[in-house]
Design a protein that fits this description.
Layout (H helix, E strand, L loop, with lengths): L2 H23 L12 H10 L5 H14 L3 H5 L3 H8 L5 H18 L8 H4 L7 H10 L10 H9 L8 H11 L5 H14 L35
Helix pairs in contact: 2-8, 5-6, 9-11
Length: 229
Amino acid sequence: MRKADESLSRKRSRLLKILDRLARSIPDPATELDFHTPFELLVATVLSAQTTDKTVNRVTPRLFTRYPTPSALSQADLPELEEILRPTGFFRRKALHAKALAEAIESRFQGAVPPRMEDLLTLPGVGRKTASVVLYHAFGQPAIFVDTHVGRVSRRLGLTESSDPEGVESDLARLIPKEGWGIAASRLLLHGRTVCLARAPRCEACTLPPLCPAWPGQPPLQNDPEGLD
């Protein structure tokens, strides 16, 4: 076995142990966005940019009561829509995106959110992370969504060196069995949001030592040929 293959094998082994521990600390990694339909999740995910899921959850009941379908949202009065979305920040831009998104779904996909990555990426305001969230949480399809939390945790755990979301996604996809992509990404995200914080990680509350090379005082992983236990 080549050295690169040995390294990948050890990394996979260590990641399986990481995911096993996260499964115990985060047994039910559901999305924190409230939704009932793929359309609601898609709009909510777009609105969650640069704000919290809790803020979006306070706004969406009023939004979807007023505009329950792509057809209704596509015909929304823009000033009224802006006022509803004001608490989420950048509300003028988000109102334009939400309205344009609904118009595209209505005109190009017969009012139904498409369940394919290549179609979702053609919609206004929808990037790869948003599309992956919808594919997994709304349609149950394998997908790895990489936000700032998933990227940060993956780098700290030594699973990737990439700072590019698509690079992180590609590295994780090589390590995680496809059927486990979505739940693994969900757990990494929530671990980053609640424990492995950006500025002041809560290492004392972490379940992952000594599997994490960023743990204070942890020796380099290459010193442990078994990938750590």
